[in-house]
Structures are given as C-alpha cells and as structure tokens.
C-alpha cells in the first residue's frame, strides 16, 4: 500500500464508475516530462513504501535533469509479465525448483507464486518441417505436439499450480502480436483493499521484442527469464533513471514504401546514434500520421537498435486500434479519460524535455532491405544488387564451387548456385501484425500469378503469421489462393523462420549447398538475421518487407536489380518488372477497409486460452510441486540452489582463472546460446543419444531449455562462433590450457577446468550479448564455470542477466581491448578489488592481472540492486532468501 506522502491519491470517474488514481500532475516538474517518465513517476507514487521507494525518489524523477548521466536508482514494478515458451519453460522450471528450495530453507512454498498477471504464449516451438502444401499447418502442428508433449504437459501443470498464470496454447499466434491485439490493457484496473484502482499498463517480457507493445503507449521491455521470475514474485526491477532520446517524426511515407522500410531506416539511425540503455520516445506532428501497425513495427525493432524501449504516446490512433481489435467501450473510455487526466495524452504541439534529440522526415524513407548478418545494416533496394555482388566473395572458401549445380526438386530439374535465395519466409511479429504489408504481399502475389509468374523451384516458401486474424482477412479478401499458388502456404502461427525454425531444406538442395560450400541466402520479413540463426545451410540472411519477400521468391536470387531485371515473362512473353506488379496504396487500403473488422478479433480471441483438441487431450500432472522425471530429456530440476546456505557467503576476488574464449565484436546471444538445430556430433547431441533420443527427435536447443544438461553443452555452440584462441576454426571449440593448449570443445574444457577448481574468463569486443533476451546465454555461461566477462561494451539485457547468474561483467577502459593489451588468452588471470562489494558499495574499477600484464577494468554492476544480486550469487538466490524471510 502506498504511503502517498505527496498526497496525490484522487478519484477519477469514467462511465459512472469510480477509480482510485495517483495524480502525477500535482508533483512539481512532472508536466513536461517525457511520456515514458510520466509512466515511471506514477509507478513510484503508487508503490511508495518509505523504504525502497521514498518521496526523495519520486522528487528526483519529477525533477529529472535530461542533461546528466544516469546516477539515481529507482525501483520499477511492472503491472504484468509476458513470456514465450522457449524462455517461459525454464522460468516455470525455476519457480518449481524454488518451491522445493524454500522448503529446504524452512520457508513456505506458497510464497513462490506470481503476484501479478503472467501470460505465456507458446509460439517458439513450431518448425516448418512441411511446406508448400494445403495441410502444411496441420502436419507441422502434429509434429510440434509429438516433439513437445512433455514440455506442454509441464506448462499445463504450471497453469494449475500457480496463481495468475495463463497459457495461450500452440497454433494461436506470436506473443507480441497476441499482446497488442488482446493481452495489453493500456490502462490496468485492480481492486486493492476493496478500492478499484486504475494505473498504466506496464510489462516486462522474456523476449527482447516485448517492446512491440510500446506502440500502444504501454511501457515495457524485454528482460531475461531470471529477472522476469523476480518480477513475477513481486520484486521490482532495479534501474537508473534513464536518458530519454526524443525522436521527432515529420512528413509522411512516400508512395511505394512500407513500415518495414521505415523501421529499418530508424534502426540504422539509432544504432549509429547510440541508444543502448536509453529510452527512445517518438513525438512531433508526424506521430499522428503513423498508423498503429507502423508504430508497433517500430517499437518491435527496439532491440535491434539497442534502446530499452521505443515508445509512442497515447492518442486517437491508440483508441481506434483498441476498438478495431475488439476491446470493449468501457475500456476504451477509461484509456482516454485516464490518459487525459494524467497528462499522458499526446499533444503534437508540445515538445517534452529530452536528453538528446534526433529527427526523421518520413518522406525521405526509401525501399530497403538489411543484411547479410545484422539488422542495422540497411541497404536501399536500388543498391541491393551492387551491394550483394561486392560482399558475396567474402563468403567464399577454398571449397566453394563457382558453377550452377544441377538438382532435382520433386520432379523438377533445376540448378543451384551462389547467391540463390533458398528460403523466402513471411514470418515474425514485426511485420505479420501489419495489415498494410501483409495485404501488400498478397496483392503482389495475385498480380504475379495473374501474369503467369511462379516462385523459383529452389526457394523454400513459407507463411507464418503471428495471429489467426491474418489468415481470416486473407480468406475474406479471397487472396489465400494466390499466396498458395506461389508456395506461401500456412506453415504455422508462430515465430518459425525468424528464430531459426525454418526447418530442413529439400534434401537435394541441402546436399548441393554443403557439398559445394555454396553461399546461398535467406530473405525473411523478420527482425533478426544473425549468422547461423536462420538455417545451418544458409550463410547470408536479409530482412525485407513481406511484399519484397514474395518478390525475392519470384527472382530466386539476391543478384537481382528490381528496377531493371525481369522477374520472368507474362503469358504474352513480355518481361515483368517489380513495378508492374507492385500494388498501390489505394489498392491495399481498399482491401483493408473491406476485409478487416473488429468481429474477426473478437471471434479469434474469444477462446484464446482454450486450445485445440491436441491441447485439451494432454495428460496433465497436478499438485503444488512438480514430480520430476529422472529420465526426462526436456524438463529436469536445475542445480542453482544445490547446497545454498541460508545466508550468502562473502564475495571473493578471482584468482588463478583461465580464458575459455576470446570473442570479437557483435557476439550475440545466438552465438552464446543458439536456439536452433542440435548437431549429432556436438556435446549436446552426444548427451541426447546417450540418453536414448533418436537424432530425428533431437528437436532444437530452444525447445530443450528446461533441461540444463542440454543447455550447458549447447553454450557457445553456434556453428559460426569464432573463438580467437584458435585460428580459422568455427564452432564450439577452444584450447584446454590444462592439457598443453590442445583443441577441444568448450564444454569438455569447462568440465576439465571445473574438476581442477579453475575459474574461467571470457574476453570479448563491442556489443557483447546483443540480440535476444536469452537468459540461457547467462545461465549457460555461469554453469560452464565462467566467473567474469571482460568486454569492450555490453548490450543491456545480457549484462543484467550475467549479474543475475553471479557472473561479473567488466568493461575495458580508455578504448582498450584484448588485442591492444596484447592478451593472447594463454595467461593466468587474477581480478582484485571485487571484495570491496562486501562493504556495501560498488567499486568503480578493479585491477586485472594477466600473466605479466596489468590493467584496470570498469565494473558494470550499475545499481545497488544489482550489487545485492551479485553478493547473493544471483537474482534467484536473492529472491529466495527474501521470500524465506
């Protein structure tokens, strides 16, 4: 209960109903705060307890100086938590384990229970095994259940065992699209001590693209699973009052450009500007012309440019979207009246105070793609062919063949060569939530089919929307048949290709690619295109709008100039260019107006938690604690709390440590903890085979995150990982300096080091840990025995996750790095000054000794709350001890 020391509690009446609110307008300095900080201010007013959150914290936020570097810690309490199944399963595994651990410490297991709404959407497990057929969706769903039955039974147990925890079953949609179309409230209500209270909807999610909901004016961002677990159990998120970058929008998008083009342009701009750890907020007269679908696309891409969030304020467009998606009139009225009462309603004429400013004239946006391995590497479509021709040779090896090799796809004889597009996938919440680009893709397909064009036979074409509403409006507009004519049959409602679940290529294609080491490509309407992510057979990945995905399926190669090169000949033998089949804005809008209605959303979401016959027929365990199956290869009790004392031991310096890996720049969480295929000859593959799992049933790393034995072995197992301890070697390999530096797998080296009691160090470059909010990238690192990571810079979520697992993040100072310091990796390391944490403070720097070299490193424990987590050995241990009391 709030102390309400500033007397901000008041009554708001909407449609005859009274709500208790905490009025931020009465706090000095609040009026011209950015929208995002107004939401945080209300959060502090409502949760003020006089200890962790005081009147001084509230005043510090209200009187925020945008020019200063962040130095004031606050405690943010999100209203709810959203999860997807790859990260959600280990969350529930951890909670189940905590229930047992708290009993061992003499506590009450019922205290391990969500205190806020928690909703998990199963969207990461469907794989495009079958494609290009009428029944692809049904077949893939059957296979999904066959592979994941054990995980799904566990989640159904969790739904019954934990309060306020709901599961959206498979075959429904993608978490972020389900969030904006149904789960998001914009303004929450809850009865507190018998009084109905209204407050802003805020959220943390176990997926980095949780920021998609920012487009609705809902403040939220991605966190690691361990941080989400703490939030579920009532722990606030420790953070510094951030810098806020104001992004002014003016003008309107030119004809022929899409929301994808705008998002890729903004991603490029903000990554260059530098927004890691900052809030980004959109304002200005151009905001009113940005439809909600485009706003959510921009918000979705926030992790790609590195900001904590990328938020739009609440306005008429917000209300229009809420009505379209079937929210009831009373809820829409509450959102409007609450936002206006709190000064959270968008006024285009007002410029809040910001730390930094950046501006985009939307009329300057051009058609674009991004790649071949980072989403911020935007390429204008007019330059795509020349750019590709320049970069293609860099992907050749001594084994790469330069010819067109004959292959047979089904009964059709064709060829495959370097630069060919072998995957064209309309996928991902980023774009499939946007009717304009989805209908644009289908209209382009219609025009192509009518002219007699077809997708090239070597292209694997898939359609995986994030909501059933997409296929509803395709059917109503009679566009499904044209998508299917080009091979874009529905393969599933889920993330699919965007997270690496693209499924196997046709055998003949895969064989030709690997035997000749061909540099082939994938084009997808996703948000991530990191190396090794999309398919093990594909070296180069490009992000594009859904219409361009269809266009590349028609072209069949990245070596294509869409302005001048023909996509094929029409029925009269005349060449067809892209401009000949590109739909106009008026054509797209006409279909939207005639084919999309609020009734669609109401129908599809009326039974969103029910599931199909497969879900309902699952044999589900019951009980408040889970009965672990010792033979399970999917769900196992993790070792985090084994031997944990009731009180934490003092922090120690690190001595006698060895280097496990030296890594370069832009090492992503995909490199650290891949989500895709498990190779048979990898440590994880050997473990599964030893436990009686057939290779065809290996599934993916992502699906086995409930089993720590698989995940430890899969840490740093990306096939494209380059450990600079080794020359010219890719994959999960290192040197074991206990055996004269012999080459071995990272996992096997870790086992040897841990058996000898030797701690481990990772050395890394810039942007270490970018990409997904993948807690297993930190969990696996910790379980390998890594004590510290020393990098040039960290991405926000991974740095936080490392601390949450008791791993010390350190940053090179004064522009130094492993190379400039002459570190070869064969040195023995000592890190001194860490013990200063025992005195209650946070040391700014520590001293690192590596062989005969000594240097200082910045301690990247950024808040007192994070320091508490580290002292306890991790966030889960800290929370467990707090719950025990």
TrEMBL record:
Its EC number is 4.2.1.3, 4.2.1.99. GO terms for biological process: tricarboxylic acid cycle. It holds the Pfam family Aconitase. It is an enzyme of class 4 (lyase). InterPro entries: AcnA_IRP_Swivel, Acnase/IPM_dHydase_lsu_aba_1/3, Acoase/IPM_deHydtase_lsu_aba, Aconitase/3IPM_dehydase_swvl, Aconitase/IRP2, Aconitase_4Fe-4S_BS, Aconitase_4Fe-4S_dom, AconitaseA/IPMdHydase_ssu_swvl. PROSITE patterns: ACONITASE_1. Keywords: Iron, Iron-sulfur, Lyase, Metal-binding, RNA-binding, Tricarboxylic acid cycle. The keyword Lyase applies. Residues 686-814 form the Aconitase A/isopropylmalate dehydratase small subunit swivel domain. Residues 64-556 form the Aconitase/3-isopropylmalate dehydratase large subunit alpha/beta/alpha domain. The keyword Transferase does not apply. One of its GO terms (molecular function) is RNA binding. It catalyses: citrate = D-threo-isocitrate; (2S,3R)-3-hydroxybutane-1,2,3-tricarboxylate = 2-methyl-cis-aconitate + H2O. Its cofactor is [4Fe-4S] cluster. Pathway: Organic acid metabolism; propanoate degradation; Carbohydrate metabolism; tricarboxylic acid cycle. PANTHER family: ACONITASE/IRON-RESPONSIVE ELEMENT FAMILY MEMBER. Belongs to the aconitase/IPM isomerase family. Monomer. This is (2R,3S)-2-methylisocitrate dehydratase. It comes from freshwater metagenome.
């Amino acid at each position: 209960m709030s102390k309400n020391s500033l007397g901000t509690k008041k009554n708001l009446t909407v449609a005859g109903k009274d709500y208790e609110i905490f009025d931020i307008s009465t706090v000095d300095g609040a009026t011209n705060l950015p929208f995002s900080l107004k939401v945080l201010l209300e959060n502090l007013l409502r949760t003020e307890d006089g200890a962790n959150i005081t009147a001084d914290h509230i005043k510090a936020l209200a009187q925020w100086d945008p020019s200063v570097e962040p130095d004031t810690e606050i405690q943010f309490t999100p209203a709810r938590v959203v999860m997807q199944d790859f990260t959600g399963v280990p969350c529930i595994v951890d909670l189940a384990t905590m229930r047992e651990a708290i009993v061992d410490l003499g506590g009450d297991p019922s205290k391990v229970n969500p205190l806020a709404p928690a909703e998990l959407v199963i969207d990461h497990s469907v794989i495009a095994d079958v494609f290009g057929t009428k029944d692809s969706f049904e077949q893939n769903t059957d296979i999904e259940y066959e592979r994941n039955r054990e995980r799904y039974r566990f989640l159904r147990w969790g739904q019954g065992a934990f309060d306020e925890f709901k599961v959206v079953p498979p075959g429904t949609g993608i978490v972020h699209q389900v969030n904006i179309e149904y789960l998001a409230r914009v303004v929450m209500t809850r009865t507190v001590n018998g009084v109905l209270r209204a407050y802003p909807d805020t959220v943390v999610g176990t997926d980095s693209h949780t920021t998609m909901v920012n487009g609705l004016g809902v403040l939220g961002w991605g966190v690691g699973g361990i941080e989400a677990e703490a939030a579920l159990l009532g722990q606030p998120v420790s953070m510094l009052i951030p810098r806020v970058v104001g992004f002014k929008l003016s003008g309107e998008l030119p004809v022929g450009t899409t929301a994808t083009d705008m998002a890729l342009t903004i991603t490029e701009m903000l990554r260059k500007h530098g927004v890691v750890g900052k809030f980004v907020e959109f304002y200005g007269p151009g905001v009113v012309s940005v439809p909600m679908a485009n706003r959510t696309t921009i918000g979705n891409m926030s992790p790609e440019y590195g900001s904590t969030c990328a938020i739009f304020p609440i306005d008429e467009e917000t209300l229009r979207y809420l009505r379209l998606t079937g929210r009831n009139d009373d809820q829409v009225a509450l959102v409007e009246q609450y936002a206006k009462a709190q000064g959270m309603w968008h006024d285009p004429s007002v410029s809040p105070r910001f730390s930094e400013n950046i501006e985009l004239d939307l009329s300057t946006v051009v058609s674009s793609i991004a790649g071949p391995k980072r989403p911020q590497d935007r390429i204008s479509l007019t330059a795509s062919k020349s750019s590709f021709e320049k970069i293609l040779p860099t992907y050749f090896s001594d084994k790469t063949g330069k010819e067109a090799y004959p292959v047979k796809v089904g009964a059709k004889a064709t060829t495959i060569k370097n630069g060919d597009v072998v995957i064209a996938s309309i996928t991902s919440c980023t774009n499939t939530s946007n009717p304009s680009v989805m209908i644009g893709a289908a209209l382009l397909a219609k025009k192509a089919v009518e002219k007699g064009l077809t997708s090239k036979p070597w292209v694997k074409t898939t359609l995986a929307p994030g909501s059933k509403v997409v296929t509803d409006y395709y059917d109503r507009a009679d566009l499904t048949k044209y998508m299917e004519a080009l091979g874009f049959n529905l393969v599933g409602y889920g993330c699919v290709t965007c997270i690496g679940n693209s499924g196997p290529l046709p055998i003949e294609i895969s064989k030709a690619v690997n035997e000749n080491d061909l540099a082939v490509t994938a084009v997808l309407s996703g948000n991530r295109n990191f190396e090794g992510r999309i398919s093990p057979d594909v070296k180069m990945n490009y992000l594009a709008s859904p219409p361009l995905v269809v266009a590349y399926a028609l072209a069949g190669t990245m070596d294509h100039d869409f302005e001048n090169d023909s996509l094929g000949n029409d029925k009269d033998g005349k060449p067809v260019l892209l401009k000949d089949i590109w739909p106009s804005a008026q054509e797209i809008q006409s279909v939207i107006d005639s084919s999309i209605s609020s009734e669609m959303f109401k129908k599809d979401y009326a039974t969103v938690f029910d599931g199909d016959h497969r879900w309902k027929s699952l044999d589900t365990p019951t009980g408040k604690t889970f009965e672990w199956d010792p033979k399970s290869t999917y769900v196992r009790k993790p070792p985090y709390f084994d031997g944990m004392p009731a009180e934490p031991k003092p922090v120690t310096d690190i001595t006698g440590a060895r280097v496990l890996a030296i890594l370069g720049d832009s090492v992503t969480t995909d490199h650290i903890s891949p989500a895709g295929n498990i190779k048979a000859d990898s440590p994880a593959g050997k473990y599964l085979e030893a436990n009686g799992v057939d290779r065809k049933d290996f599934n993916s790393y992502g699906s086995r995150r409930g089993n720590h034995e698989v995940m430890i072995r899969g840490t740093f197992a990306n096939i494209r990982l380059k450990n600079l301890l080794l020359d010219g070697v890719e994959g999960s390999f290192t040197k074991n300096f206990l055996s004269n530096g012999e080459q071995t797998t990272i996992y096997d080296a870790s086992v040897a080091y841990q058996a000898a009691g030797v701690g481990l160090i990772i050395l890394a470059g810039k942007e270490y840990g970018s990409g997904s909010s993948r807690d297993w990238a930190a969990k696996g690192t910790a379980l390998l025995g890594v004590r510290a990571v020393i990098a040039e810079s960290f991405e926000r979520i991974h740095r936080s996750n490392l601390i949450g697992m008791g791993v010390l993040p350190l940053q090179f100072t004064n522009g130094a790095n492993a190379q400039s310091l002459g570190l070869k990796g064969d040195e023995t390391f000592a890190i001194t000054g860490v013990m200063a944490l025992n005195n209650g403070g946070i040391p700014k720097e520590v001293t690192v000794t590596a062989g005969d070299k000594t240097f200082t490193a910045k301690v990247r424990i950024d808040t007192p709350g994070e320091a508490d987590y580290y002292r306890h050995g991790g966030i889960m241990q800290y929370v467990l001890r707090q719950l025990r009391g």
